[in-house]
TrEMBL record:
Residues 1-22 are annotated as: Disordered. GO terms for molecular function: oxidoreductase activity. It holds the Pfam family ADH_zinc_N_2. PANTHER family: PROTEIN AST1-RELATED. Transmembrane segments: none annotated. This is Enoyl reductase (ER) domain-containing protein. InterPro entries: ADH-like_N, ER, GroES-like_sf, Lipid_raft_assoc_Zn_ADH, NAD(P)-bd_dom_sf. The gene is LOC115697288. Residues 39-362 form the Enoyl reductase (ER) domain.
Length: 365
């Protein structure tokens, strides 16, 4: 059964001696999981002939081998960000990918057809990775380390880049600093522990009982099971940065109080999307900006700290560092279970019902 059509044409603008590096494989249609409307897992539809757009000069066509399911995928499916994404339906979900380069745009310099790559799309991308052929920009991809499989690689980039953005771009962590990760059991929290340890920081984390040993094995100096102990009474001293992956009022209060003056509190749960969903873009976005500004001013005044909402964005330097750490065995995100792409509904159901606490990956044949 053929899932896609393709033809390969030489690019006449290129020197024939280098043409094999830059063959433009034109895939016109392929399988993709579409989200025609918001709702439960059953709204997802695997369609056989979804159009593949032409590549822009800086884009890369990737033949998917594995894509991971992120919390953002299940939240978007349920309607999170509907003010932004509603008018753009149907969408293709998915952020992470590992696969092979099938074609490159005219200005792509660092990647070649046939190369194994992994990477992640921006949170607002409309054509995601749940498809045989995904399109990413050159700076959203990097060569896949040979030391990991496509399944393992696909679990890493989105979570690790989210953690990287907070720790490296915002807090600019340096060797010898103390970092607190609230929620070290999830993919972003676990990536943050490993990135901070690799940067020579001393790391404490709060997590569920099932994640304590893993956090310690990853190099955390203290891992507190928040279900059994009160983090405020067992974690001692102050921190240079707190990454809060849970982002409820209680974790925000605790995190802020653990910071030194001049420290950074960063939460993944910024209110921009929820406020725009509630009030629409015209009212919601300015409301989100003023909410953030109020908190920044208040915490600067009361605690002398920097407060920010953090989210993933493409960062070629970050992705290359993530690749190096993965290659060196210093960064990994365990995959709990894999499903074939044909069972995407079952995979989303399992995540929704919290049957599988860890990472779930969708595999392509």
């Amino acid at each position: 059964m053929r899932f896609f059509t393709s033809r390969v044409i030489p690019d006449p603008t290129r020197n024939p001696s280098t043409a094999h590096h830059h063959r433009r494989s034109i895939v016109t249609a392929c399988r993709a999981v579409l989200l025609p409307r918001f709702g439960g897992p059953d709204v997802l539809q695997l369609r056989p002939n979804v159009e593949v757009p032409d590549l822009n000069p800086n884009q890369v066509l990737v033949r998917a081998r594995a894509v991971s399911i992120n919390p953002l995928d299940t939240r978007m499916r349920s309607g999170y960000g509907r003010s932004l994404f509603g008018p753009l339906l149907p969408l293709i979900l998915g952020r992470d990918i590992s696969g092979e380069v099938a074609a490159v745009g005219a200005s792509v310099k660092t990647l070649n057809v046939g190369q194994e790559v992994f990477g992640a799309l921006h949170p607002t991308a409309v054509r995601g990775t749940y498809t045989d052929y995904a399109i990413l920009s050159e700076d959203e991809l990097t060569p896949k380390p040979v030391s990991v499989t496509h399944v393992e690689a696909s679990a890493i980039p989105f979570a690790a880049l989210t953690a990287w953005r907070a720790l490296k771009s915002t807090a600019r962590i340096t060797e010898g600093q103390r970092i607190l990760v609230v929620g070290g059991g999830g993919a972003v929290g676990f990536a943050a522990i490993q990135l901070a340890v690799a940067s020579g920081c001393n790391v404490a984390t709060t997590c569920g009982s099932q994640s304590v040993d893993r956090a310690m094995a990853a190099g955390a100096e203290q891992a507190v099971d928040y279900t059994a102990e009160d983090p405020e009474s067992v974690i001692k001293g102050k921190f240079d940065a707190v990454l809060d992956t849970i982002g409820v009022p209680e974790t925000e209060r605790i995190g802020v109080n653990f910071l030194k003056r001049g420290g950074y509190y960063m939460t993944l749960q910024g209110e921009a999307a929820s406020l725009t969903d509630s009030y629409g873009l015209v009212i919601g976005l300015p409301l989100a900006s003023s909410t953030l500004l109020k908190k920044q001013l208040r915490y600067q005044y009361t605690h002398g700290i920097e407060y920010s909402w953090t989210f993933m964005r493409a960062d070629a330097e970050g992705l290359n560092e993530i690749r190096r750490l993965t290659e060196a065995g210093k960064l990994k995100i365990p995959v709990e279970k894999t499903f074939p792409i044909t069972q995407v509904i079952e995979a989303h159901e399992a995540k929704d019902k919290k049957h599988i606490p860890g990472k779930v990956v969708l595999e392509f044949d």
